[in-house]
Each structure stands twice: as C-alpha cells, then as structure tokens.
Amino acid sequence: xxxxxxxxxxxxxxxxxxxxxxxxxxxxxxxxxxxxxxxxxxxxxxxxxxxxxxxxxxxxxxxxxxxxxxxxxxxxxxxxxxxxxxxxxxxxxxxxxxxxxxxxxxxxxxxxxxxxxxxxxxxxxxxxxxxxxxxxxxxxxxxxxxxxxxxxxxxxxxxxxxxxxxxxxxxxxxxxxxxxxxxxxxxxxxxxxxxxxxxxxxxxxxxxxxxxxxxxxxxxxxxxxxxxxxxxxxxxxxxxxxxxxxxxxxxxxxxxxxxxxx
Length: 262
What we know:
Elements: H1 2-16, E1 22-23, E2 34-39, E3 51-52, E4 55-57, H2 80-90, E5 94-97, E6 99-100, E7 108-115, H3 117-120, H4 129-137, E8 146-152, E9 160-165, H5 166-171, E10 178-183, E11 186-193, E12 195-197, E13 203-205, E14 213-217, E15 223-228, E16 234-237, H6 242-261
C-alpha cells in the first residue's frame, strides 16, 4: 500500500514538474475560504511541534506510558485507548499531543497507527463510539491498518473518535468513507481526495490511483475542511464555526503526523 502511494507521488511530481501540487475537492459545494501551510511536518524531530494558521501543537509525544495520561480526560467505559496503550507505545505506533488555537482552546489527542480493528472494539458495549462507527461503516474484523484517534476538544467535554482504514482509503479511494464521531447522531464523514489540480486549475485523476488527502463533510454532506498530505501538507477550511474548526483541526493534525508513525 505504501508502495502504491509512493509511485503515485513520484508520478505527481513528474507530471507537474516544478509547479506546486494542489488537491482538487470533488464535492461540488466546496467553497475554499482558507488555505493554510503546515510547519513542522518534515523530518522525525525531537521536540517536534506542528502548526498551521492559528493552530499549534505542543511537543508531540511518542513515548507516553500508562500513568502519564492527561490530567482532565473524561473517563470512558471499556476504554480502547487504555487497552492499546502499552503494546502500541512499545511498537512506536502511538502519538499524543495537545492543540491550541488563538482563543486558547486546548485539546488532548491520542492516536494509534496500524491498529487491528479487533483491538479497538473492546467489549460489546453498543454505546461505544468506535463500535457505533464500525456498525455505520460496516468495518469487519479483518481491518488491520486502522488509524484510530481520540480527541477531547476541551476540559470536561466528551471525546470524539476518528477511525480511518488506511488500506481501504488507498485501494478504494473513490468509494471509501472514514468517520469522526461523538455519537451516531453527531459525526463527520471523512472522504479520500483522489484528484489534483493541473496547471489550468482543472481536476485530474492520480496516474496510479490512491489518495493524497481527505475532506471532512458534515452530516448534511457539505465539505467544511480538507487536508493535503503531499509534501509539507496544506489545510483548507470552509467554516466560520469556531468549535467545528477547532475540532477538525485536531483531526487534521493527527492525519498530518500519521505518516511519521508509518
């Protein structure tokens, strides 16, 4: 799967020569309001911080262990985050960070790369958000390259969960949908971006298929944000709702950092 992505990426660079490569959103209701460049993504740095626009992470932590958790997390029954903690930290497939914006909102984010679906569906709790996501997306037990993320957007706020099947997002880019959800009544769809803009600004398909980013759609189907994972990355917003923007910025930051875990 990684080979497919790199071949696509090399083809993109050749196809576009020295021109900046931009993604093309397929959703016809897209109205790009902001394009934000990303800083801090390149390289595997000590004391790494990621930023775009008004959003900045604290130091990205890849070595946290049980007992060094967040001080104001909301306790969650049958917590898959705690169950994955030790194993995935040892595999260096875990990151934790906080994100702040210009209004001093602060979150806590925990992300696991290359997770098995059976590892994050702890118990049979029908109210578990990851179980709800699995039911909505019809994820089977054979999912083996899951990117699983928990976002607590602020103190005393309920967590959101993001689940993306990396394999499906590449092999079925035109039909796959991931999800960012707090409940089955409050969620965003995450759709792979598989089109680029050519020199004339027209959308063109990737030479070898696959995806190069994601768009976030609200429950009405409107695209409110997008992220390009090409090179340093670019972030796009089409929303004036500050809470919505902050929530999705956390999900985007996790996606931008995922490449380094792989």
